[in-house]
Design a protein that fits this description.
The protein is mainly beta. It has helices at residues 2-18, 148-154, and strands at 31-36, 41-46, 49-55, 58-59, 68-77, 96-99, 102-105, 112-118, 121-129, 138-140, 144-147, 163-167. The strands form 3 sheets. Strands 3-2-1-12-5-8-9-11 form an 8-stranded mixed sheet, covered by helices on one side.
């Protein structure tokens, strides 16, 4: 038994010593999106430098924004939003948002979304919202909402794979 174990160790050691190929590098963006649920703010860091910050809308009590660490798994240019709540509109495209001051047309050409993978779940996004008066409030179904102008500034800076940290 001892001899077999020693032979296995020697084989593994010899493989690593004789392997002269360069180590494989994994290219991940050194970016971070930090979302603070208490202050309802988003900060974007690139190479440890704060590049962008803004106020955001977060999840409400019954559907909170999840805490933790995740990453941007996809970028969506001109996403189509659909009704998710059970009812006669479920699955239909949202063309008008119900804002505090009435209905506002969703300008799909200016909408952007960053799909989040939070602990293996991909049901949340950081996305534009037509209802800018909701920014700074807990009103969403867990997603992080940004004004259209803020998202149009952030979107081109973020790469897929960017780390996202959501804290209180």
């Amino acid at each position: 038994m001892f001899g077999k174990l020693l032979t296995l160790i020697l084989l593994l050691t010899n493989q690593s010593v004789t392997d002269t190929s360069p180590p494989k590098k994994i290219s991940l963006p050194q970016q971070l999106i930090l979302i603070n649920l208490t202050t309802k703010t988003l900060e974007f860091y690139d190479q440890d430098k704060l590049v962008f910050e803004c106020s955001v809308r977060i999840g409400k009590r019954g559907t909170p924004t999840p805490l933790g660490i995740g990453f941007v798994y996809e970028k969506r240019d001109r996403p189509i939003f659909r009704y998710v709540d059970p009812g006669p509109q479920q699955g239909q495209v949202v063309n008008y948002a119900e804002c505090g001051d009435g209905l506002k047309k969703v300008i799909h050409s200016k909408m952007r979304a960053l799909g989040l993978n939070m602990k293996g779940e991909i049901k949340y996004s950081i996305h534009s919202t037509t209802c800018s008066e909701t920014i700074g409030k807990p009103l969403s179904n867990g997603c992080i909402g940004m004004t259209v102008p803020d998202m149009l500034k952030l979107y081109p800076l973020v790469k897929e794979g960017t780390k996202v940290r959501i804290v209180k």
